[in-house]
């Protein structure tokens, strides 16, 4: 009797563990897929009356995303930056929080790709050229000089991702949990001290 109860409990536990493993795999799969891109280099340097960011981001549009653009669906991307001041006695304080937004679309009449970066717009002949433009962030003004205190060491975090929240509603539903629509990078983290070169 005791042996049969123990066996039943063991089988039940095994089923629970298998179910938990399946759920965990389902949850982590999209997250792992989001690591398709990588930030190769990033730095904060003085410039433009304050501080600017330069970065090189390595990513590719998978066939699903490329096909969506070529069929007339606009894709939205964002580069997100956070600069925090560490505090030993409390939570770190966010000093700078910025985002650089991109809108990529295809115009069938002119057979060109239109890339909007903030309020700037440009037309490009190929999808590859549009992607290359997004991969190179140069002289992005992120803060005034007074926003960061000289001699203080700050924590900087940067990432790039596809912003599915701005897609048309039907595509938002499709993108939910889909690996093909989960393009992005991990956060790239480094320290920066005004008055010294940023660590790469």
Secondary structure topology:
Blueprint: H1 2-33, E1 38-47, E2 50-58, H2 63-70, E3 75-85, E4 93-107, E5 112-117, E6 120-124, H3 127-135, E7 136-144, E8 154-162, H4 169-175, E9 188-192
Antiparallel strand pairs: 1-2, 2-7, 3-4, 3-8, 4-5, 5-6, 8-9
**Helical region count?**
4
Helix content: 25-40%
Helix and strand content put the structural class at alpha+beta
Count of individual domains: 2
Any idea what the shape is?
elongated
Order of helices and strands: HEEHEEEEHEEHE
Main sheet specs: 6 strands, antiparallel
- How are the strands ordered across the major sheet? 6-5-4-3-8-9
- What are the low-pLDDT stretches, counting only 5+ consecutive residues below 50? 2-11, 15-35
- Rg, nearest Å: 22 Å
Gap between N and C termini, in Å? 66 Å
Strand content: 35-45%
Number of strands: 9
Average pLDDT level: 82
InterPro entries: DUF4390
Keywords: Methyltransferase, Signal, Transferase
Organism: Thauera aromatica K172
GO molecular function, one term: methyltransferase activity
